[in-house]
Amino acid sequence: MENRYNFKKCRVKKTANHPHLLANKFSILTKNVGAFIFIVQEGKFVYVNPAFEVITGYSAQELYQKHLWEIIEEDNRELVKQRVISREKGENVPVNYEFKLLNKKGEVRWIDYSSTVITYIGKPAILGSGIDITTSKNMEEMLHLEQEKLAYLEIHDTLTHLYNWNYFRKQLENTDKINENNSAIIVCDLDGLKLANDTLGYSAGDTLLRDVAKILRSSCPPRAIIARTNGSEFATLIRDIRQEKLRTIIENIYKQVSFYNKKNNTLSLSLSIGFAYKQNPNQSLTEVMQEANQLMYREKLLHKQSSRSGLVDIMMKALEVRDYITEGHTDRLQEIVEKIAKAINMPENRMNDLSLLALFHDIGKVGIADSILFKPDKLSDAEMEEMKKHSNIGYHIAKSTSELAHIADWILKHHEKWDGSGYPLGLKGEEIPIECRILTIADAYDAMSNDRPYRKAMTQEEIIEEFKNCSGKQFDPELLKVFFDKYLLI
């Protein structure tokens, strides 16, 4: 080992009249060497060189009050103590080894240590020497951890910490080699992941994926091999399982999904599940997995629309929980738009759709950060651009479900203005759907007539004056006249 000072067994004769001269000479010899050197008698330090003072942080005088094992790290303390005692007795114990000591600051230092028996000032003693190898040990530990990390990442999915597809595929092959019957495969697909990513952001989608992983772990036996095999897909291999137990596992997964949705106000889980059981020794597990996938895709088609509708419902619920949709807001909007629609003889089916628009026009705000939605002050330009995204987000949400797809275009355009200064398309005049023009008036009236975080409600006179100022700019002038006549009664 580099820089290690190995002292062969030696005997230092006592000078009867001047024993301190011998100690001084020893000190001079070892003072400037690079390695640490110490001498212990009966376990206590009787000599240390400056290098050992540097390593330990203790002065020589402080060390002379201590036993060697007092500065040894707890895990190594008893081992070092027994070896020192045995060595002084002349017993055959290892003379070269590594241990950890604690310096004065409580920091761990790794030591590469050698010892030999000597006679010092007429008494048996242990001469210890060595070097501080903490840096190299730390590098070894870092390398080991990095290797462990790489080995982990090679077979695991980083998001869910389940196994990945490569590992799962190898397990299928290994299980096929032993030709084990009574194995089962469960495959699951997280419905609506793309919609969640597009509307709520990738952090919401990641949360859903992690929560699916938790449900699968808690529902399946510990020996199950669970993997995330694709973006939204999961697979589980369970060896040696009875069919009745397999059905119980499937039921538990569904129950946990249901429980998750009942307690969760902001996210909704929907899983399409397929499973298959190997009973034929000639059937490979790849074929079993194909069978499970076919059943899963069949189920996905059956409840594709209902899962998306459920996601829309949970998004509206999320807005309510976040207190963005204030109490009575949508009811008041529906009342106003209905009166305007009746006044212009809008067909009943269009009125029903207009009522839906009043209810869902701001659903896209579920994808906007609370810090922007609830900011009491005026939004910055950057924040306003972020807020404007809710029209597009709402459009994509509505397009994903049959119940709202027919009003998706209105949701996209509900912030357009009569003079073309609105967003996101800059439409003007009658290019804007009449339903959006009606909603614009109703929404503005409700906003002005109710308190906001940054202002009190406006008076009726102030509201009328504001409408008149914005007629032909923000609002359709003809519809505004109808609103004045049929709702404000002026």
From TrEMBL:
This protein's species is Candidatus Syntrophocurvum alkaliphilum
Which InterPro entries does this UniProt record tie to the protein?
GGDEF_dom, HD/PDEase_dom, HD_GYP_dom, Nucleotide_cyclase, PAS, PAS-assoc_C, PAS-like_dom_sf, PAS_fold_3
Protein name (Swiss-Prot/TrEMBL) = Uncharacterized protein
Domain PAC: residue ranges: 95-145
Which superkingdom, per the lineage?
Answer: Bacteria
Q: Tell me which residues make up the HD-GYP domain.
A: 304-490
Q: Which SMART domains match?
A: GGDEF, HDc, PAS
NCBIfam families given in the database record: GGDEF, sensory_box
Domain named PAS is located at: 42-84
| Domain (GGDEF): residue spans on this chain | 181-314
